[in-house]
Amino acid sequence: MPWIQVKLQSTGKRSEQIEDLLLELGAVSVTLEDSADQPLFEPPPGATPMWDEITYTGLFDAATDMDLVEMALRNELGADLPLRVEALEDKNWEREWMKNYKPIPFGKRLWVCPSWLTPPDPNAINMLLDPGLAFGTGTHPTTAMCLQWLDGHNVAGKTAIDFGCGSGILAIAAALLGATKIYCVDNDPQALIATRENAERNHVRDRLEILTPEQLKNNIQVDVMLANILAGPLIALSAKLAGHTKPGGSIVLSGILAEQADSVRDAYLSWFDMDAPTQTEDWIRLSGHKRN
């Protein structure tokens, strides 16, 4: 089925107005993208963060009278509104989407592969993972740096916690690399479902215990603590994550912007000897060992 899309630029303050207007004019979907590469940080409870400058895309059936749509948008939003209308090539969009994902290596042993592709190295440790609603496919620098840490360390026979597990990618990688027990913790029900399904696809479900933060017992201590979340929660949770790490155990923290690294590192120095930070693009991974 052919489609036509309308792209326009405006401020985040008008997001609700523009979304409602596009839908009223017949758009079957509306997407919002950052127009200025502006990071969004952890919002306070109940708040919905929004970029200052946004590109709005409304998707319309090709039979729609787009002259009327454009006229209505300009009448409501201003005659000088930056706006363009373009036809979308009629494609098999499911296959187009799948073409964007390729197997990715992390270190010397570990690959993350979409389930519909044959792993390029059958002798490697291959994790089958498809993009989904829960965060974590290995394409983001924060996840990639944690996977590289796991690939470069011996976790065979060890226990771990993946705090803020998202898709379960770090926990599953640890299991495939030989960890015997991994606690997967997240407060998002969708993340727990995704972790369970991905663990089953990779045949490691029996080594994962999937929990909400409230279900993680205080007396559980592990050899490896993994937390790829955000700087604010990492600082707030420092005592809790330290308490769940065995003396001599390792901690791996990510989701940290470069300017936040010192604050996060300082929050853990009471318990851990911290390594030099690792940086990819604007993101930092911190790691260390808990003192005996």
Please tell me about this protein's structure.
With 292 residues, the protein is α/β, with parallel strands linked by helices. The chain folds into 2 domains: 3-90, Alpha-Beta Plaits; 103-290, 3-Layer(aba) Sandwich (Rossmann fold). Helices cover 28% and strands 30% of the residues. It contains 9 helices and 15 strands. It has helices at residues 15-24, 66-77, 93-99, 141-151, 169-176, 189-201, 231-236, 238-243, 261-268, and strands at 3-11, 29-34, 53-61, 83-88, 104-106, 110-113, 125-128, 159-163, 181-185, 208-211, 222-228, 245-257, 272-274, 278-280, 283-290. The strands form 3 sheets. Strands 8, 9, 10, 11, 12, 13, 14 and 15 form an 8-stranded mixed sheet that branches. A 4-stranded antiparallel sheet has the order 2-3-1-4, covered by helices on one side. A hairpin with a 2-residue loop joins strand 14 (278-280) and strand 15 (283-290). Helix 4 (141-151) runs parallel beside helix 5 (169-176). The longest helix is centred in the C-terminal third of the chain and has 13 residues, at 189-201. It is elongated and about 70 Å long. The mean pLDDT is 89.
